[in-house]
UniProtKB/TrEMBL annotation:
Protein's recorded name: SUF system NifU family Fe-S cluster assembly protein
Species lineage: Bacteria, Bacillati, Bacillota, Clostridia, Eubacteriales
Record domain NIF system FeS cluster assembly NifU N-terminal: where: 7-139
Biological-process GO terms, alphabetical: iron-sulfur cluster assembly
Family membership: Belongs to the NifU family.
Superkingdom of origin: Bacteria
UniProt GO MF annotations: iron ion binding; iron-sulfur cluster binding
Length: 141
């Protein structure tokens, strides 16, 4: 199967899924992210267990790319330690900015590789990285 088609289906599936798009009760941190260029707005809610991201959810509105990216990020980072999560966020942003193209390194991003082609669509880059930047801020609090 053509990888682009597979990735498009994955993005649409996550955009339509409500598994990660939900209210989180009693989060330790909530962080708002906003993309003025297309109006995407998300709020990430994080619950920690010590140094581990025990639960993560988002609410908000936006285009398919921003919503799917947030959902895929949550699948990837739930259960990770803060440092691991930050390293993966930096890797994702590095991939989008074309700073990281080592295949072995990028494989750690799992389904988030679906956004690799976004780098060819400059107007969509901010949509794809919105949740990731927002999580960076949430962890640094």
């Amino acid at each position: 199967m053509d990888m682009n088609k597979l990735y498009t289906e994955l993005i649409m599936e996550h955009n339509n899924s409500k598994r990660n798009k939900r209210e989180l009760l009693n989060p330790d941190v909530t962080e708002k992210g906003h993309n003025p260029s297309c109006g995407d707005e998300i709020t990430l809610a994080v619950k920690y267990n010590g140094d581990i991201i025990e639960d993560l959810a988002f609410t908000g509105t936006g285009c398919a790319i921003s919503q799917a990216s947030a959902s895929i990020m949550i699948d990837l980072l739930k259960g990770k330690r803060k440092e691991e999560a930050l390293a993966l966020v930096e890797k994702f942003i590095g991939m989008i900015k074309r700073e990281i193209n080592n295949e072995d390194e990028l494989m750690e991003l799992e389904d988030a590789l679906a956004f690799q082609n976004i780098q060819n669509m400059p107007a969509r880059v901010k949509c794809a990285v919105l949740a990731w930047h927002t999580l960076q801020e949430a962890i640094k609090q």
